[in-house]
Amino acid sequence: MDTVYYLVQNMLPVAIPLLLVALGGMFSERSGIVNIALEGIMLFGAFFGALFVLIVQGSSMNPQTILILGMVIAALSGWIYSLLLSFASVTMKANQVIVGTALNMLIPAVILLFSKMTFNSDGITTNISFYIREIPILSKIPVLGELFFQRTYLTVLIGFVFLIVSTVVLYKTKFGLRLRACGEHPHAADSVGINVYFMRYAGVSLSGILAGIGGFFYAVGITDGNVSGHSGVAGFGFLALAVMIFGQWKPIRILFAAMFFAFLRTLAYSVSLIPFLYNLGINQTYYKMLPYLATMVVLGFTSKKSRAPKAEGIPYDKSQR
Amino acid sequence: MENYIVEMKNITKEFPGIIANDNITLNLKKGEVHALLGENGAGKSTLMSVLFGLYKAEKGEIRIHGEAVNINNPNDANAMGIGMVHQHFKLVEVFTVLENIILGVEPISKGFLDKSQARDKIIELSERYGLKVDPDSLIEDISVGMQQRVEIIKMLYRENEILIFDEPTAVLTPQEIKDLLQIMRGLAEEGKSILFITHKLNEIVAVADRCTVLRKGQCVGTVDVKDTTKEELSKMMVGRDISFSIEKGKRESGDVVLSVRNVTVASKIHKNNAVKNVSFDVRAGEIVCLAGIDGNGQTEFVSALTGLEKINDGTMHLCGQDITKASIRQRSIIGMSHIPEDRHKHGLILDYTLEENLILQRYWQPDFQKNGFIRFNEVRHYAENLIEKYDVRSSQGPVSIVRSMSGGNQQKAIIAREIDKKHELLVAVQPTRGLDVGAIEYVHKQLVDRRDAGKAVFLVSLELEEVMNVSDRILVIYEGEIVGELDPKETNMQELGLYMSGAKRNTDKEAQ
User: What pLDDT digit, counting tens, does each position of A16-43 carry?
Assistant: First the structure.
């Protein structure tokens, strides 16, 4: 049982960045814009979040307050960076995949350059601990308390709040209905007076905000508050795209997909704690390939049935019918 | 002075290189069905787009309820009570009927969508106007006819008073057309004013009070429908007399070109076979028409005949060669030409140029290809020839993008391609679908011309008039079976209708 607790406690901080970034991808693609720049946006958000932490870590501020403020900074920077994608692909009608790729390539280089110039290092190293041993009261709930409210990060709770809000926004509000219409049939949306360009800016902006936060949460929960221009976010942005597709562009399914990938990753890093796997005598490095191999296998099998938003990737042109 | 709900005065709308609307005036009375008649490309849709705020006119004035207004976008039009059913429906396929109807005017309570309020209103509208819809079905699961009813409810839900129908019958089956015309009359009686864009004369006579005719961007005139005839209307529209009957020489049928024996094709929709044990011959120099109500296995049979789908059982021979398992290209080489039912899906690559589309089947032949490279000079030369010979009109000749061409000219391009290549059998599936009378006349002439040139023509049609006028022999298909073989000279539309609806069959012919 302790192993299960250990796995879940370690899985959640990994799952949350995947979940948030995949939800971001979902908002963007549901509005009709393929957001392949998630990886870059994550790193951008993580960098500014960590920069903020670096600046304030000497003060007497509560670590959890710093986390929340850092999240806001990361969200803002992610949003600003995503505006480049919106401008290029919505206003200028550029090819979304190429713009996204360019944005992804830009960021690690910028971070490396900036960090070398300023800190003479490859990135930002912070020394604040956001770790929470246990959350009062909630951690006393039998089983669940130990699973979700002990040895964790605030990011996990915030992540679930975002999931619920995203689900409600997408399915229960006017905004969500209009956003989905723009990703499926923008001409239909236009014909009933919906501003397709605005909705697509909104979708990409949401993805920028969520991916920025996701990047910061990755830094908090996985790399101990550090950001490096070399390792970046280790392909989590692309993994999140896979999570989104595996989750069929639906929030709750995306949660399960994120859990699945996070579980594989946690398992890979915990092999030495699980006697059965440890005794197999396979080099542990192979296990670390698991989430990435699973991506290929899962997408290979599900892509035939998957149904992406119909109009995604196609710049909206009023005059074409 | 009469009271008009909409007055469009001296509207002029230009596009680069073409005047789409030249000084057009149109007045709509309250509670009338007003038809807007014209050939493809006459400017009907442009005029309505101006009224609906999709385009801005260079000159002219629009008055609603006597007041001059500015309509800059569909929202403005909507606010003035103008609604439009577009030719290509503007519906989100993965949304429910209800979601599509409320999109853009969502009822909200406490910040969230209030679907139950919308559902009540939709059900009330649907009962009041006889528009049967199920609010919770997905659009992709319902029939085209029901999708159109959703579009109509969409306008009523927004409390529009002026309803524009852009070629609403082009996509419907005959029964659905009948229902729609009835609904339109009902709406007019309830006080709604209807603008009805069409090029089908029968529908105008059946439903419209007045009719405005456009030709090449100009207004030819407005007439009371009860004071005019179909012939007069068509003359106004085309500018010359149109012959509704087709002149045909005597029939001299020759050798068997196509021989179909016991062909059975599985259905993709249901478990039964879509085509059951069908056998017939088509000879050189005759037009054989496969008649039937839509959805009785015609599409499946044609897919099998042309090689798009495999058959379960039976054999097919073309010019004496077994083509049962031949590839599409082999069939084409042996001598099959095909004018497909869905010209956008199977006939053309819409974003290719006209010249590229014209060599789609032949690009690999030495005429057009050398050492793996396409001989573009030859292609251009060939395309220019065909365009000239078959009068295919487009803005930029051989390099026009096919998507930008009118439906009639797209069809002409396909016909040119299929007829110009070497062929013994021409398979034409609903070749006049969605075309105006001028273009229909042209297509029919080409079919008869092929027959007179000694080719075999296999025509699939849903239009009774076309079946009776064009064919030399009629095969009636009902639920996948050939239920009768008729001679158009010895039968009439009533009898044909009975066969098509399955009420009558002559089994001895089927047994042969």
Answer: 999 999 999 999 999 999 999 999 999 9
Token pair belonging to A5: 């607790």
**DSSP per-residue codes, B55-97:** S--SEEEEEETTEEE---SHHHHHHTTEEEE-SS----TTSBH
CB distance B440 to B244 below 8 Å:
no
* Residue B286: pLDDT over 80: yes
Q: Are residues B45 and B122 in the same domain?
A: yes
Q: Quick check: A163 and A156 in contact, CB under 8 A?
A: no
Domain count, chain A: 1
d(CA B216, CA B20): 7
Six token digits for residue B243: 């012959």
- Decide which of B221, B238, B255 is a domain's last residue: B238
Q: What is the pLDDT of residue B512?
A: 39
CB of B91 less than 8 A from some CB of A: yes
Within-domain flag for A116: yes
Q: For A217-238, how does the pLDDT look when each residue is reduced to its tens digit (9 = 90+)?
A: 999 989 988 999 888 898 999 9
The yes-or-no verdict on residue B508 having pLDDT over 70 is no
> Which residues of chain B does A192 touch, with a Cβ-Cβ cutoff of 8 Å?
74, 78, 90, 103-105, 154
pTM to 2 decimals?
Answer: 0.80
Position A312 in a domain: no
> Is B340 within a domain?
no
Task: Pull the structure tokens for residue B443.
Answer: 């297509």
Q: Which two tokens stand for residue B510?
A: 């089927």
pLDDT for B509: 46
Residue B103, min C-alpha distance to chain A (Å): 7
ipTM value for the complex: 0.90
Which residue segment(s) compose the domain that A18 sits in?
A: 2-302
Q: Of chain B residues 133-152, which have a CB less than 8 A from chain A?
A: none
Q: What is the pLDDT of residue B511?
A: 41
Tell whether B79 lies on the interface with A, counting CB pairs under 8 A: no
Mark whether B502 and B465 lie in a shared domain: yes
Torsion of CA B427, B429, B435, B436, to 10 degrees: 70
Report how many Cβ contacts below 8 Å link chain A to chain B: 61
- 3-class SS at B468? helix
Domain that holds residue B374: 346-421
Query: Considering only CB atoms, which chain B residues are within 8 Å of A310?
Result: 93-94
Which residue of chain B has the CA closest to A187?
Answer: B90
- Bridge partners of B256, per DSSP, are B283
The last residue of a domain, from among B238, B259, B277: B238
Q: Say if residue B126 is in the same domain as residue B262.
A: no
Does residue A251 belong to any structural domain of this protein?
yes
How far apart, in Å, do the first and last CA atoms of chain A sit?
60
Residue B128 resides in a domain: yes
Residue A318 placed within a domain: no
